[in-house]
Amino acid sequence: MTSQQAMPPLGPAADGVAALFRARYLEMVRLAGLLGADDPEDIAQEAFARLMRKGGLAADPAPYLRAIVCNLTRNRHRHLRVVREKTPRAVSEPSPEQAAILREDHAEVIGALTALPARRREAIVLRFWLDLSEREIATTMGVSPGTVKSQLSRGLAALARALEAKA
Question: What distance in Å separates the CA atoms of residue 155 and residue 33, rounded to the nearest whole number?
Fold first, then answer.
């Protein structure tokens, strides 16, 4: 395609994703960051790209988008774990996103949250940072509402123990 030729219009689905991007991008970056992604912007962008590749938007694509972010973050953690196991130990610096999060007023909570298993951390972040219901969390994580309740209960108990130990 030459510079003289115009790009073909992307259609209503792309317009819907663009509007959703403007409305939810920062929320998805924050979600990925709170879940411990080393590259939350990339995770959020990839989530929107996958949503666009899917084609049509559901009536409420936000739960699907959150699930994509959670899955991408989880996959990134798995990938990094394998890389770390096969790479000699080196001193690593936190990414700028992680450094910014750590500088927030609730650094102790973030530290304790990071120590939790991934599923508990996801449930707590989705519930208390994004204020989702147990049903929405269950949809996002692909588990039953009972599992969400269990993960929240156990995660909050572990957070309380960790924060009491620091006090």
Answer: 18
